[in-house]
Amino acid sequence: MQLPWNDYQSDLSIQDALESALNGEDGGSQLASSKSFTDDFELEGLDLWSVESRYKQFFADTAVEISAALGQPTFSGAMPAAMEWMDKLEVDHDSVQLWVWTKAHAYVYLRYDWGDKDLPVAVLLGKRSADA
User: Fold this and answer.
1) In 3D, which of 124, 121, 123, 125 has the Cα closest to residue 51?
2) How many domains are there within the chain?
3) Are 114 and 94 in contact (CB under 8 A)?
4) Helix (H, G, I), strand (E, B), or coil: what is residue 18?
């Protein structure tokens, strides 16, 4: 899925990105991010909510694909319910949605971040050791 108003989109398949996360160091990496929404000149005629909707759909599709590989998530939710998981994973509290799967001795997480309407939308995939 090619995302609108896109600044970055990984060319890895979700399966390859998942394998990379599982085999790599703790932390996360972007799967996709939009441009920021601060340049009024470029924003003219842009439907911000349509753009955000497409990133939400990308996030949801990615969550389904990860669930097909890892099984049902250990957690899926939004703030404030996600706060405890964000602390455990040591991730920013800008996440609007957070899904977490348990795999062996690690937590795999998928985040949908959009901390402010002027900031970029980001979808991130990562791993955190459950033993940490």
Assistant:
1) 121
2) 1
3) yes
4) helix
Greatest mean pLDDT among 8-22, 79-93, 116-130 lies in 8-22
Range of the domain at 121: 6-129
Q: Kindly give the pairing relationship between strand 27-34 and strand 75-78.
A: unpaired
pLDDT per residue as tens digits for the range 70-103: 999 999 999 889 999 999 998 877 778 999 999 9
Please state, in angstroms and as integers, the Cα–Cα distance from residue 41 to each residue in 24, 44, 45, 51, 61, following that order: 40, 6, 9, 17, 32
Residue 79 is assigned to a structural domain of this protein: yes
Count of Cβ atoms closer than 10 Å to residue 62 Cβ: 21
Q: In terms of pTM, does the model score above 0.85?
A: yes
For residue 39, the Cα-to-chain-centroid distance in whole angstroms is 24
d(CA 61, CA 131): 29
In a domain, 1, yes or no: no
Contact 99, 82 (CB under 8 A): no
